[in-house]
Design a protein that fits this description.
This protein is mainly α. It is 59% helix and 0% strand.
């Protein structure tokens, strides 16, 4: 048998066979060698970094996280009396909702109840980053704001009615209420609808079970009910967020020589 690239008897000389490893003689349409694999650990590291917001990949979450970092530093370093006054002015209690509803709803969402050590701080970064990478920053903000506003109104309006009916004292109109937890709970519920069943239902079971346990403890029932309402708001948004979900761009077709 003639070696690869050698001319056949009575035929014109063939071009030398390409010195490319992995190609077989006499097999047409071979594109070339397989791409070299990434160095060990490079791809997993890149995937882990995608869990955190970046200015390009998740600008809304990144900017919001920077704002929360500033307010958390203020809450940690400022005089406690000043911090309490800021929280009180940002509280979405009944009195503020009746007088300045829009400013107070926005102001209450720039503080983290419990500071950066709160579980909601880490959940904010991971959940909102994942959601924003799937549906975009503006739509993620809409989901977060819907959970924050609806859960706040669903818990504070009954307080106002109870005060009017004489079932609660007037001091309940100034109940301290601020933080990002309602928005985070709604974002968790919405994100679950974009995940596969093997991850969606364990996530909802874990988060829903923890929120139900907090309600059973009955330490802060109004806030605990708000978390469950916010989670349900996110779940109710599944048809919408699935319509919003970004689809990857189709790969460019590579012409195959014939």
């Amino acid at each position: 048998m003639s070696p690869p690239g050698a001319p056949l008897s009575g035929a014109p000389a063939a071009f030398p066979a390409p010195a490319v490893p992995g190609l077989l003689d006499g097999m047409p349409r071979q594109r070339g060698p397989a791409p070299a694999a990434d160095p060990a650990g490079t791809a997993p590291a890149a995937r882990w970094w995608r869990l955190l917001p970046t200015p390009a990949g998740a600008p809304f979450t990144f900017a919001y996280a920077a704002l929360l970092a500033v307010t958390s530093v203020v809450a940690a370093l400022a005089d406690p009396a000043v911090v309490h006054a800021l929280h009180q002015d940002s509280s979405t209690d009944v009195a503020h909702l009746l007088s300045t509803p829009v400013p107070v709803l926005l102001a209450s969402a720039v503080w983290i109840a419990g500071g950066v050590v709160s579980p909601y701080a880490l959940a904010f970064l991971v959940v909102l980053t994942a959601l924003e990478r799937r549906i975009g920053g503006t739509r993620t903000a809409c989901v977060f704001l819907a959970g924050h506003v609806l859960a706040t109104l669903a818990t504070e309006v009954p307080v106002g009615i109870a005060v009017l009916c004489g079932h609660l004292p007037g001091t309940s109109l100034h109940r301290l209420d601020y933080g990002i937890s309602f928005g985070v709970a709604a974002s968790v519920g919405a994100l679950a609808g974009l995940l596969g069943p093997w991850l969606r239902w364990p996530l909802l079971t874990l988060v829903g079970g923890a929120l139900l346990n907090d309600l059973i403890v009955f330490a802060d029932p109004m806030t605990n009910w708000g978390h469950l309402i916010a989670l349900g708001t996110g779940v109710a948004a599944w048809p919408l967020v699935r319509r919003w979900q970004r689809t990857p761009a189709p790969a460019l077709a590579v012409p195959v020589p014939r």
